[in-house]
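Following up on my earlier thread - several people asked me to post the actual chain instead of describing it. Fair enough. Here it is, all 174 residues.
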Amino acid sequence: MTESGTASAPKTALVVMGVAGSGKTTVAELLAEQLGWQEAEADDFHPEANVAKMHDGIPLTDEDRAPWLEILREWIDTQPGSVVLTCSALKRSYRDVLRSAKADVKFLHLDGDPELIRERMSGRRGHFMPLSLLDSQLATLEPLQPGEPGVVLDVDQAPEEIVAAAVRELGLGV
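Reply from S.P.:
Thanks for posting it. Predicted structure:
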C-alpha cells in the first residue's frame, strides 16, 4: 500500500529467454531503454566455475545452474522497480525458480531457425559461450508451456520489431 492507502502496482520482471545467439542482449537493452527499466545479464551472475565449464565446452548441469538461478531470483527481489533480465531459462523448472521472485514475472522467448542462430553465434567475439554448446542448449530447451506467462517471438525480424511486438503482446505499456 502506498501512503495514500491505494495498492501500488507490482513490479514486473521481464525475462528475455532463449538459447545463446538468439539476440537476448540486444532485445533486452532495447526493451530496458524503451520501458525505463533496470536491465541485467544473467551471464554476469555466473560463478567462475560455471564460466570455466562453458568456456571449455562443457554443458552446465541442473546442479550447476541451481545456485545461479537463486542469485537471479534474489536480484529481481532486491530491485526497487521493474526489470529486464536476459537468461537462457531453458527448462520450465528454471523458469519456475525465477517465477518465485516477488514480481510479476513474464517471459519473452526468442526463438528461431537453429542455422540462423548458429550463424549469429559464429560472428560473436569475446563471449565465453562456444558455438559447440548450441546443440546442447537446443536439446535442453523446453518451450514455454500453458500456464507460463509469456510470448514466443521469432528472431528472423529486426530487434526493434521484436521489441514492439513484445511490448504489445505482453501489455508492457510505457
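The chain has one domain: 12-170. That should answer part of your original question.
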